[in-house]
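Feature request disguised as a bug report, sorry. It would help if multi-protein outputs had a clear separator. Right now it looks like this:
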Amino acid sequence: MSLRTALKALPTMLRIGFSEAVAYRAEMIIWVLATTMPLIMLALWSAVARGGPVGRFGQAEFTGYFLAAFCVRQMTSSWVAWLVSYEVKQGTLAMRLLRPISPLLAYATEVLAGIPLRVAIVLPVLGISVWVAGVERAVPTSLGGWGLFALGIVGAWLITFYLNVLLGTLSLFLESSQKLMEVYMVLFFVCSGYMFPVEFFPPGVRTVMEWLPFRYQMGLPVELMTGAHATKEAWKLLAAQWTWVLGLGVVSMAVWRRGLARFAAFGG
């Protein structure tokens, strides 16, 4: 597939993906309801904060953080690992490979096409966050802050997508990659800042987590959204995030190509 072909096909694929997202909006609503963990954690930590601040977090800070986590989760979610695994088991991946467009581009557009509907869910939540927590605790308050957040959210989406591609592709080598996906989800919940801020971990554990991708999927964009970092520190963290983007991009593409060669060799 040439770059020119991909670029010509992209608008059509996005339109089709958006139409499917609208047609299957009930599924999207179910998915949104399945990603309400930040709202549960907000209720828990707000109750804890009634007795006094937890570090730098009072009730308003917890509100801003967890509503931001809910929004970031909606914007960066990906189900490609489960989709690839299912299509490998059913044999339908072979049909995708007959098309002139890369399956990975098709998977990516399916995920991206649903974002407008997710934005419709995110905007009211942002409004509530600004009203309850205050604008400085809910969203960036400067153009530069919005730019840093935009870089962070794109990087988070790419890390999540590439990890999903990698996990899904492992189903071409293993009888099932389902268990690995479950392990990944547990690590994501605990290490990303999804259930509680990363800074609550002891310093030694936090240092280890700086070398894992999970914090850059969730914690970093949430921190950028709520103004937790000065500009210099934000750029340093973004550099680490985009290093993960590049590294995972290279690894996932290499594993994908090798997996497809194995798939073809076995008559997929």
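(second protein starts here, but nothing in the output says so)
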Amino acid sequence: MDWYNAVDTYIELVEQQSFVKTAERLGLTTSACSKRINWLEQQLGCQLLIRSTRRIRVTERGEHFYKHSKQWLQQFRQLKDSLNDQSQGLKGLLTIGATSVTTKLILVPALRGFLEQHPQVQVKLLDVEPNDAPDLSVDLTVIKELEDWQSASFKAARLFDYSVRLYASPEFIQRHGPIEDVNQLQQLPILLAKGQLDNGGVMLSDGTLLNQQPQVVCESPAGIIEAAIQGMGIILISEEAIQRDLQQARLQAIMPQLRSETRALMAYYPNHHLENPLVKSFLLALRQHCDGMFKPI
């Protein structure tokens, strides 16, 4: 047990007036919160809180400690920030979760300049599924926006909006002839990634739902890209993901006026009181990279 985490928990508990809410905000169990408060009271030799089944009441000494410890905690954070001089470079391990496509197209290019600037930083990249909720053990999770998901344990930063369009190989287009309306699309093989299937298909901007069960389902988007190149069906993907294939004419756009509903790429990170300077710095670098790479929809 340490003073910082125990005091941090106490301050949050006084302000939230609930062990459940405090535990959720700090990413702990209620039992862990209670142990921190018990330890703090033992160290101070006095009772800070009076607990009942319905509410938490702060004692007179507890109120005195709250006011002064909150000021101390703020001063400690400011001191830590001042010692973490960016000009000297950052140190430590940064864990980032993302899908394989996001890692390839966005994270790795953004990390190149960031790591050159901070050579003492180490990065661990983790593969995650598109619909997986962020994990508190991961410093930063970069995935599409999770609808109907909210957690006080996390903060979220919007990176950019995107949509996917339809592409197929020249061989596929030649074999099936010109594809000019959505009725044709719904009769042709569509190559959907696992995440797209899990969402029930892909809704186009005109309201058409493409959810034909494909013959081939791939965990990795790289698999369906290759299947599309081999003429096995139509793929729905962002232009950035197949830039080289478009340049080499292995894929070409179909009905370019159509695209999917707009989605957002988000960065989720734990809502700790003491902000992780690695997350803060890399998130800034990531936003700058995305602003330069992606055009607003």
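Even a blank line would do. Unrelated, but nice: The longest strand covers residues 154-162.
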